[in-house]
Every structure is written in C-alpha cells, then in structure tokens.
Predict the structure.
Amino acid sequence: MRPVFTWNLGDRSVELGKRTLVMGIVNVTPDSFSDGGLHLTPEAAIAHALKLLDEGADMIDVGGESTRPEARVGAENPAVSAQEELRRVLPVIAGVKKERASAIISVDTYKAQVARTAVEAGAEIVNDVSGLQWDPSMKTTLAGLNCGVVLMHTRGRPDEWRSLPAVPDLVLLTKRELRERSDAAVNARIKRDRIVLDPGFGFGKRLEENYPLLRRFSEFQELRFPLLAGVSRKSFVGRALSKNENDAAATDRQFGTLGAEVALALKGAHIIRTHDVRACVEALKLADVAAN
C-alpha cells in the first residue's frame, strides 16, 4: 500500500498517494533526446503545456536545458547559461499562468539562479536533477524559497556517464545516496514536507541497471518521502523493445513506457513524469483501481 503525504508547495499543498499524479514534460530545448526543438518557441511551448493540462496533467515540468548523455552541465561552465535558460523558460511560465492561473508549474533546473527567478515568476516546484549536487548555492536558495522540491538521484555528470564503473547493487547505492541528499536538504532547512525523491532512471545508470530500479522500486518507500519516477521514452525502454538487435526509437517507445509507468504506480510511485500525458492518465486510472 502506498503511503499518503501532503506535499507543501508554499501557498498551497497537494495530496499524494490516494491516486497517482501525472507531471507533463515541456522541454523548451533544441537538443532533448526525445522532443528537442519541437516546442522551442514560447508560443509552441505554451500551447503544448496547455494541451497537456487539458489531457489531464496535474502539473507540468518546464525545462530549458537538456541533461542528455554527454551534455556539459554544472554551475561552473554549463553548455546553457542561466541567462539563456531563463530566456527559454520564463515566457512559458508566464504564458501558462496567464491562461491557467491555477496550473501547477515545476521548473526543471539545477541552477540556483534559475530556480529563484522561476519561482518568483510563478513556478511552485523546483525539480533538481542533480539532487543539489551541481550548484553549491542550490541548498541555501531552496531553503529561502516557498516551493516544493524534487531531489533526483544522479551518478556523476552526463559527460562522465559512459566511464562510470559498475556497482554491485545500484538500488542499494541509489537508496543510500538519496537518503544522504535528503538529509543534507533537511539540514539546510528545507522542510521535509516540501521534498519529493526521484531515483533518476537513466541518470548515470547503464541500460541494464535500470531494470532492477524498476523491479525493486517499492524499496524506495523505506526513505519515507513521496516518490516521483520518470521513465518516459528512455533508452532502457527502447532496449527492452528491441527487434533484430535494433533498439526501438524514442518515438516508438510509448507502449513500453506505459508498461513501466503502470508498474511504478503499483510499486508505490506518487507522481509519474511523462511526455504522453493522455495515455498515462488513462492507464494510471486502471492501475490505481488495481492498487486500491
């Protein structure tokens, strides 16, 4: 049985656990692995975000920098500056809030400057894929902001992923490091009821290492935080769907993605982050019936 939490977003809260919530992905980037360039203009990104909300998304996650494999990231010398990232995401946040004042918007960033400015513009969640590891200012910045926080687990940085050594038990490692990073967040005065954890499928994990994360996802409930999972169109899904030794292309991974998303909901995920909102919403309605 999935535990129930109240997620504190600052000026309002969201109940997590009685049904599986859906976070729709809006990438305002030219180079994201699945949909880079499709929603690069503010107008296209706003229209896409509104479409996802119409399809049933409970919240949207707006990102202005790709963290695909080999990307150069970090506070010191990122491929995308904070100013460029803000140029991409701020008009989208403003446009969506203008059309849907009640919409819950997450900003997908590891940069403290972007997080602060986006929250001031109307975002209510900061989704840090680095789990507070890539910008030393992020902990203190988030402690001073009135918003929800997603801490995702990442091993290393994207340009290091191919050279990372294998570990005997990646689930155990991920769980331990998520506990350490959530403890660091709480010690930095980020309240526990503002934090959601994400084990980071695909982030510093070899293809074959993602399947134990999926199979043993329920173990992350031991951390006693709400859980978010994002597997949408990822490479390990394409490998599982391979034919004649050719992995399925990102555009052909929807049904495999749905299978993984339903499995995650049944194993305790509170929020699913996805590209294909309508399909996910409808599949999760049945998964929640089965779980309850």
Q: What stands out?
A: Residues 5-291 form a domain with the TIM Barrel fold (CATH 3.20.20.20). The beta strands are 5-8, 13-16, 21-27, 59-63, 105-108, 125-128, 148-152, 195-198, 228-230, 271-274.
